[in-house]
Amino acid sequence: MSTTVTGRTHEPAPVQEEPERPPSVPAWRRKARPYVLSIPAVLIIAGILYPFFLGAYYGVLNYSAINPEPIFVGLENFARVLTDSQFWGSVRVTLVFAVVATGAEMVLGVGVALLLNRASRVGRIFERVLILPLMVAPVIAGVIWGLMYNPQFGVLNYVFGLGSTFNWLSTDLALWSVILVDIWIFTPFVAILVLAGIRSLPRDPFEASEVDGASWFYTFRRLTLPMIWPYILVAVIFRFMDCLKIFDHIYVLTAGGPGAATRTLQIGAYEDSIINLNYSLGSTYMFLLWILVFITARYLVSVLGKAQRRAAGAEG
Amino acid sequence: MTVRSSSFQPQNGGRRLGRRDLLKYLGVAGGGAALASLLPACGVGGGTTSDEGSAADEVSGGFDWKKAEGESIKILQTPHPYQQSFQPLLKDFTELTGIEVETELVPEADYFTKLNTELAGGSGEHDVFMIGAYFIWTYGPPGWLEDLDPWLENSSATSDEYDFEDIYEGLRMATRWDFQQGSPLGTGGQWAIPWGFETNVVAYNKAEFDRRGIKPAETFDDFIQLAIDLTDRSESRYGVAFRGSRSWATIHPGFMTQYSREGAVDYEVDGDELVAAMNSEKAVDFTRKWVELAREAGPTSWTTYEYPDATRDLGNGTAMMVFDADSATYPQNRPGESQEAGNLAWHPGPAGPDGSYATNLWTWSLAMNSASQKKLAAWLFIQWATGKEAMSDAVRESAFADPTRASVFDGAFKETLGDFPGYLETFEKVIDSTEIQFTPQTKFFETTENWAVALQDIYSGEDARSRLDALAESNTDEVNA
């Protein structure tokens, strides 16, 4: 249909030039494109899954340095590890470490975040200084704290007047001392993550509660905490997973000792694989640790999902 | 607030697996898989055991240092006084042979981890590496080490002047084994050539001893009492430093030396089996005393102590004695090296009840990677580094303590030793009884670390008898498995 402006309807309308179409892409290339685009992801996943399945495969062999031509032994390694009291000792140490360190880091991290949220010059300075422990590699932190814990010349015994006989790394105290180091390193991580969460909260509910005369504690309990709960849970997931596979600063400080007082699952796996060169046993340790991490991760992710829905008002 | 965000809603009634759920589960699985990807860091492949003839058989004609001219080799070492003494001499080797040497250094704490991983992976990246004698018991059976016997025996590959017999017998035997559990050292292949070594004796603060008018103890009971008397915690001073960390390395220096002098053994051979003897009467009695010594007169954080901690405490005047490697305490007496430099002296340590000075040794040796593609060049390097001339140069020009050749020890080392009271006398007293006091077996690291853990448990209050019974039972099972 044409609109006649000139009234000259007998003249044919000028032929409009069709826009130049790009040369058609061959069908095979169109079909191949998604696969080509997926290659980097597939390579990354293969890079993760190949060693994973290889490790799991080692778990059913009797592969070690002195036995370089292993045979299939079924679940023998699993039976050996699961009936070994040392393994269950390591599970206990790992769980105590993870629960206590994560719990303490959450409480302290949220407290520090709330303090830093108060706009002040000191707060801004502390905000920057707090990042420092995060800049220190855990291995280096282990070395530093090892010197500080030294009874002969360590600063802690000197400052607290404990003399040269108080041993921070004795059987009774070693686990708590390595937890303290973890708290020192990672509380700032939690604080910064939660602080970012607090600063992203809407102001209206807080202004309303202030107008209504709510106390600071009431506001915190009823408003702040529920609203920052998803951020706290994210921090819990990060820290708990990390704590379950803790190795570095503990190994530097105690190598898992005294006795087995700080022997975590990762240290057990390292001992078996790298020191004792029993690759199958080390793989079994790691596979069992993977199961523990997987179950915990799934649980925490589902809790996080619920918390996010609740924070958004979709539930409860 | 009733905002419904799709991101918070279960899709399709929450029954079907949604895209986000899938991503979530993949994320969880990916995280777990990433964790478990550490699993095969344990190593793959390895072993190059072969019944084929030695590459040494291919070398013929007269001996000539230039036989591998133009090649280059890579060596793996740890920064140790031995390595540091030889580093400036490498240019002499290149000049002599025309072979270029590339050195890779890895700190001792990570050295064997790297070496294990490399050898287990069947890599021939490094042609030559530093190794301790105990490592032969683990690295040898899978075929990771080249047998150097054929090289030594081939006059086309080895100079007439090399004189292998000049290396102390205990050291030559320490690096030779037939890989049969419990079989004594000294038979089988020559898996490494001793380069430097350590005897485990007592170093003490002579200035403090002189001030008090006391002398080192000659029996173990006197040694314990002396160490206790020298301990004054209020002054941050204690009697004797020795290793106590959770490592096999805790057992081999002072502990194994005195354990052997007291007449105890680690294993007894029963037919084809080894029976752990860490719970014999002598062993239990000695272990009780050793742990008591650590408690009463050792460093407060003994369970973390490695040799650098012990020698540092001797050097700064905190520890009055150290029972460890002589070559580890030796540098503390060099001018400017420590606060107590010039004040230290050496003593063989307590004799056993029968007068025994049985002493455990550690030898840093040079081994050849069986997967090396440049074996002749690698052998020429080992031959040069363990030869008389280079070793004498290292002793004269640097801090190469305890050379492994008798001629170099009696020559260059004695000439340059200087004022190290008791060092030579101690060495000469113990050298004839210095050998590896452990029973060779392939599970050495595992079972010896178990031993260190048991010491820590006893130190923490467990009963010595029951703990050592448990240790002996588990170690017997382990070595015969």
CATH architecture of the largest domain in chain B: 3-Layer(aba) Sandwich
- The strand count of chain A comes to 0
What is the fold named in CATH at topology level of the domain at 91-282 in chain A? MetI-like fold
State the CATH architecture of the domain at 91-282 in chain A. Answer: Orthogonal Bundle
The structural domain count of chain B equals 2
Main structural class of chain B:
alpha/beta
* Overall 3D form of chain B: globular
End-to-end Cα distance of chain A, whole Å, is: 59 Å
Q: Level of helix content of chain A?
A: 55-70%
InterPro entries (chain B): Bact_solute-bd_prot1 (IPR050490), SBP (IPR006059), TAT_signal (IPR006311), TAT_signal_bac_arc (IPR019546)
Protein name (chain B): Sugar ABC transporter substrate-binding protein
Family (chain B): Belongs to the bacterial solute-binding protein 1 family.
Organism (chain B): Phytoactinopolyspora halophila
Describe this structure in words.
- The complex is a heterodimer of chains A (316) and B (481).
- Chain A is mostly helical.
- Chain A has a domain at 91-282: MetI-like (MetI-like fold, Orthogonal Bundle).
- Chain A is built from 13 helices and no strands.
- Chain A has helices spanning 27-58, 76-82, 85-117, 121-129, 132-135, 138-149, 155-159, 174-199, 204-211, 216-244, 248-253, 265-275, 279-311.
- In chain A, helix 8 (174-199) crosses helix 10.
- Chain A is flat and about 100 Å long.
- Mean pLDDT of chain A is 88; it is low at 1-9.
- Residues 1-50 of chain B have low confidence and may be disordered.
- Chain B has 19 helices and 13 strands.
- The longest helix of chain B has 18 residues, at 19-36.
- In chain B, the strands form 3 sheets. In chain B, strands 1, 2, 3, 6, 7, 10, 11, 12 and 13 form a 9-stranded mixed β-sheet that branches. In chain B, strands 4-5 form a two-stranded antiparallel sheet.
- In chain B, strand 8 and strand 9 (273-276) form a beta hairpin.
- Chain B has helices at residues 19-36, 81-86, 90-97, 108-120, 133-139, 149-153, 169-174, 206-212, 220-230, 251-261, 281-297, 307-315, 326-329, 375-385, 388-397, 406-416, 423-430, 444-459, 464-480; strands at 72-77, 100-105, 128-132, 176-177, 189-190, 193-205, 238-241, 267-270, 273-276, 319-325, 344-347, 359-368, 434-435.
- Chain B is an alpha/beta fold.
- Chain B has 2 domains: 67-198 and 362-427, Periplasmic binding protein-like II (D-Maltodextrin-Binding Protein, domain 2); 199-360 and 437-480, D-Maltodextrin-Binding Protein, domain 2 (3-Layer(aba) Sandwich).
- At the A-B interface, helix 1, helix 12 and helix 13 of A face helix 1, helix 4 and helix 18 of B.
